[in-house]
TrEMBL record:
It comes from the Eukaryota. Keywords: Membrane, Transmembrane, Transmembrane helix. The chain crosses the membrane at residues 39-63, 70-91, 122-148. InterPro entries: DUF2062. The keyword Membrane applies. This is DUF2062 domain-containing protein. Residues 20-158 form the DUF2062 domain.
Length: 182
């Protein structure tokens, strides 16, 4: 019989740690990784389940070289369990901002939702949750960026196969200038 703790550890290593190490070994910029991870996590807690991957799929080509696609998607994957736990706080924040009535979270309300008797209430609660997320998203993004940037600076320095050096950056810049001049 397998030990559930070791099975979970193996799963976490294969699905989160190993992809992160691969990203770090490829030598991406810490600022880009911090921004991409923050963006992926922020989009990953969007209060409508099943939409987050599509949001990331839209954000990645729009931002182009400013984001690291693998980091965005990995952070989105990591945020999935947290997404469910933040739906109610986003809902309550949106209700407070809009001044609307609180959507009841009771078994009777669930019965009404499942039988289709509370369709306008459900739509209104979705709008409230979206308003709450829209208000919180810039703060989530900024806070995660500030926290993750020093972490990625250390991790990139430790795990990157091609560490960045001032001489290399200067040489690359000179090469770009020579190409532009030609």
């Amino acid at each position: 019989m397998r030990n559930p703790t070791s099975a979970l550890g193996t799963w976490l290593h294969n699905k989160i740690v190993e992809p992160l190490l691969q990203i770090l070994r490829r030598g991406a910029e810490p600022k880009q990784l911090a921004f991409s991870t923050s963006l992926g996590f922020t989009l990953g807690v969007f209060p409508i389940c099943g939409v987050t991957v599509f949001l990331c799929g839209i954000a990645i080509p729009l931002l182009g070289s400013r984001c690291h696609p693998a980091s965005v998607l990995l952070a989105n994957f990591v945020a999935t369990p947290i997404e469910l736990s933040l739906v109610i706080p986003f809902l309550r924040l949106g209700e407070a901002i809009c001044g609307g009535p609180q959507f009841p979270l009771t078994s009777d309300a669930l019965k009404k939702v499942l039988t289709g008797q509370a369709s306008t209430d459900v739509l209104l609660s979705i709008v409230h949750a979206l308003v709450g997320w829209l208000l919180a998203a810039p703060f989530i993004l900024a806070l995660l960026y500030v926290v993750l940037l020093p972490c990625y600076k250390i991790l990139v320095q430790k795990f990157s196969s091609d560490p960045l050096s001032p001489k290399k950056l200067k040489g690359d810049e000179e090469l770009r200038l020579k190409v532009r001049a030609a």
